[in-house]
Structure prediction request, 226 residues.
Amino acid sequence: DQQVKQNSPSLSVQEGRISILNCDYTNSMFDYFLWYKKYPAEGPTFLISISSIKDKNEDGRFTVFLNKSAKHLSLHIVPSQPGDSAVYFCAATLGGAQKLVFGQGTRLTINP
Amino acid sequence: KAGVTQTPRYLIKTRGQQVTLSCSPISGHRSVSWYQQTPGQGLQFLFEYFSETQRNKGNFPGRFSGRQFSNSRSEMNVSTLELGDSALYLCASTWDRTLYNEQFFGPGTRLTVL
Prediction:
């Protein structure tokens, strides 16, 4: 039962353009969503998060959008940089629990 | 401030053996969570400890267990290892069960079961 899904295993974007990573969830009880970035041989690094009471959160080049009716969230990276090449995971949780439910990840490659 | 540390970084075991992995959280962090990452199943939650008590548990068999010490350091143990236990085991820490503190992950322990 995959409650959080990232349907695109990989994404290739040209440097300077916008990267859009998508994530869908099935559990309407989730009330907090997070994006993590992971480089090989390292643990995931927190990027940005959003509460279910909001529909947008921005932090520098990163913006997360939440569409609760569609149970969909997306991460926008503008402009994309070579250092953004990594695997991106979306995660969800509920009730303040530290139990994160992760998607399968999307490998983002930024081409020069 | 030092990050989350995990030891060992790499481990090779054979089927039937048991293994213990260690995690030292960031100083001041009281919650420690463990995750398993495999190519097929992705990142899956194992359990979370807070103040030496297991507070949340994922859907893993009883062969997977953990504990937390008074200094918040945590260990996880896998008994009777199976080939399918080969994975990257990640530990994450955070301050407390206040609202949605981000979890800080360690680099992981790569376990290979032969």
User: Anything to note?
Assistant: Chain B touches chain A through 28 residues (CB under 8 Å). The mean pLDDT of chain B is 93. The longest strand of chain B covers residues 42-50. Chain B has no helices and eleven strands.
